[in-house]
Specification:
Shape: elongated
Number of helices: 20
Largest sheet: 10 strands, mixed
Strand content: 5-15%
Helix content: 25-40%
CATH class of the largest domain: Alpha Beta
Radius of gyration: 27 Å
CATH superfamily of the largest domain: Ribokinase
CATH topology of the largest domain: UDP-N-acetylmuramoyl-L-alanine:D-glutamate ligase
Distance between the termini: 16 Å
CATH architecture of the largest domain: 3-Layer(aba) Sandwich
Number of domains: 2
């Protein structure tokens, strides 16, 4: 699903009316009706609530006026506070004000004094509907509207607040907080989420939110190439659980080669390999330093292994490239995953660079494999494999080393950094962290909603490497960006399931491995 700014949403609304013939008044009616439907379901029984609807002068206020009229038609008695002179209303908002007052008046508030006079009578309110500004904020709140927000937040703190589109005082276009804003327990937005719904810290201030469709054709969104930010929903990745053919065999689901591990870092290789198996790869082989191989072999009976030449401290040596061993090993493999636990020995880094630049298979590069290219991305050959079929999976620290930027610079501009890196180097970029991003060279960026802080523990990145490799092995003709998006979603979902059972503080990376099967089952549940 697309993630939109306020101006993009306005453009889509105009397109919906001008090209697709859906009247803007119909969109507003549908928006208000969807809010009433949410209230009737989520806050039932509504008859027990004393409802106050706060309406601004723009389209957000128009949505609120529809909500008020529809509630009155259902014989509820909400109070309606209009923060504007009725004569100043325009367009659809004015039309809906005229429709509202046939069922009862609104109370007009245009200054601090009128608010103070009316607010004294609101002490029994149990539910506020905030339809003052929505996505219309362009600067921090000030004046008497700021006082309104402060009063609702403090004086009426026992009441619940549902925001229409966005809480008043929060900008649609950024995850940053511009200033004081209306608290919200719930938020109903329309057509698509806005940036503030998705990115921190704003996303923590919008309450429980839903996206309701109000008649905007999906073609209006899909036809706009400038809409390049997307939020992953379960339906977007459910294709990974399509039924397998009854006559299928392991050869139908690919063979992942995982080049990983060294003495002291054998667990990273084993977790990546087990994750690839849990993802559904038909076969998985781990190629690792000779000394590390016996340990890795004992960690999973299902793995195949290959010993490689090693350095004096038990890491993969450049000499592993001598002869034809690797050529034969790569034959008939579906995907390469390189990096977990290989260590930082200069000779190993040189091996990594030579290896990934030699073989044209789809690639997942993580951890020490990424660090081999830190400050040396000029050595990554983009002509080895088709554009976008190398998947880089850095956390912010690794991304900083790859780009030469600081972690603060990465974190303050994650979407742009991820998109630009992906396009510059022709890779699918998975920038890990809260709201992990998946950027493709075509400029599209997907935002992942699953996962939790309990996953901030050693080894979870290795699990993601294996999951990604396992899915790439199974779906060789599927767009790599979509495969990576599915892997990230499953990875976070497994983490969420692990947190439910063990708690965030006690989670281990291995717990994610055990929850991958349940995560797959979650994808098969019908809405």
């Amino acid at each position: 699903m697309k993630i939109l700014t306020a101006s993009q949403m306005q453009r889509i609304d105009r397109l919906t009316t001008e090209r697709f013939g859906v009247p803007s008044l119909t969109l507003m009616e549908n928006a208000g009706r969807s809010v009433v439907d949410f209230l009737s379901t989520r806050l039932a029984p509504l008859a027990e609530h004393r409802i106050v609807i706060l309406c601004g002068k723009g389209n957000n206020g128009g949505d609120g006026l529809v909500v008020a009229r529809l509630l009155r038609e259902q014989e509820f008695k909400p109070r309606v506070l209009l923060f504007a002179e009725p004569a100043h209303l325009q367009g659809d908002a004015a039309s809906n004000y005229a429709r509202l007052i046939t069922s009862g008046q609104a109370e007009i508030i245009t200054n601090r004094e009128s608010w103070q006079a009316i607010s004294a009578s609101l002490t029994d309110t149990t539910l506020f509907v905030d339809a003052i500004l929505g996505t219309g904020l362009s600067k921090p709140l000030e004046g008497f509207l700021l006082e309104v927000v402060r009063d609702v937040n403090a004086r009426f703190s026992a009441a619940e607040v549902l925001a229409v589109d966005l809480p008043t005082g929060i900008s649609a276009d950024t995850g940053e907080i511009m200033g004081e804003h209306m608290r919200a327990d719930f938020c109903v937005t329309f057509t698509a989420p806005k940036i503030a719904h998705v990115f921190p810290p704003a996303c923590d201030r919008v309450g429980e939110w839903v996206v309701n469709q109000i008649g905007t054709p999906m073609a209006a969104l899909e036809s706009d190439p400038t809409l390049s930010l997307n939020l992953t929903f379960r339906q977007d990745v459910a294709w990974v659980v399509k039924p397998r053919a009854a006559a299928a065999n392991k050869g139908n689901y690919g063979h992942a080669l995982i080049v990983a591990g060294s003495m002291g870092k054998t667990g990273a290789a084993a977790m990546a390999a087990r994750a690839a198996l849990r993802a559904g790869a038909g076969l998985v082989t781990v190629a690792t330093a000779k000394s590390a191989l016996p340990i890795i072999s004992t960690l999973s009976m299902e793995l195949m292994t290959e010993a490689l030449a090693e350095t004096e401290d038990g890491a993969i040596s450049l000499h592993a490239l001598d002869g034809t061993q690797l050529d034969k090993l790569v034959e008939k493999k579906s995907v390469l995953a390189v990096g977990p636990g290989v260590g930082g020995h200069p000779e190993t880094a040189e091996f990594v660079r030579a290896f990934v630049n030699k073989y044209p298979l789809p690639l997942v590069l993580d951890a020490d494999g990424l660090i081999a290219f830190a400050g040396r991305m000029d050595l990554f050959r983009q002509d080895v494999r088709p554009r976008g079929t190398a998947v880089f999976t850095p956390h912010p620290g690794e991304m900083a080393r790859l780009t030469g930027k600081t972690i603060a610079e990465i974190q303050s501009n994650r979407v742009t950094v991820a998109r630009e890196f992906s396009q510059q180097f022709g890779v699918t970029l998975v920038l890990k962290g809260f709201r992990t991003l998946i950027a493709s060279p075509d400029g599209q960026v997907w935002v992942n909603p699953t996962g939790n802080p309990g996953m901030a523990t050693g080894g979870t990145g290795d699990v993601l490497t294996g999951l990604t490799a396992g899915l790439l092995a199974q779906f060789p003709t599927h767009p790599v960006g979509e495969v990576a998006t599915a892997a990230v979603y499953l990875h976070g979902l497994a983490g969420d399931l692990a947190a439910e059972e063990f708690g965030q503080q006690s989670m281990l990376a291995g717990d994610l491995l055990d929850k991958i099967p349940k995560a797959y089952k979650e994808l098969t549940i019908d809405d």
